[in-house]
Amino acid sequence: MIMDGSESWFDEEAGPLVRPFAMTRGRAPSGRHELNMITLVVAIKPDSDAVTLDRESAEIVRMCQRRPLSIAEISARLDVLLAVAKVLIGDLIDHDYLIFQDPPPPVETPDMDLLQAVLNGLRDL
């Protein structure tokens, strides 16, 4: 969009014109780390060490100082795609800014007969 003879990098309807592949320098999640949307990450370096990082990566380190955050929450707060967040977080893990913990595996699947009985009981109310 051109306004007053200058280019704008923001379109009110479309949002920022920086594409996701530009943030990740064209990379997709590598699979080096088993990261999913509920994986928790926490910063292990102070945010003052992140001054040399790009804006999004520095923001991730800053957000993860106080408490562990899920990748989905980081993605939402940065307003980026989940895949972009995974690439940025993977880089920060590789450079020892963050550590991650996988969520515990599901204990066991619920008994379908029990769930059906509960559903039938609720319907009878």
UniProtKB/TrEMBL annotation:
Pfam families: DUF742. This is DUF742 family protein. It comes from Actinoalloteichus fjordicus. It comes from the Bacteria. InterPro entries: DUF742.
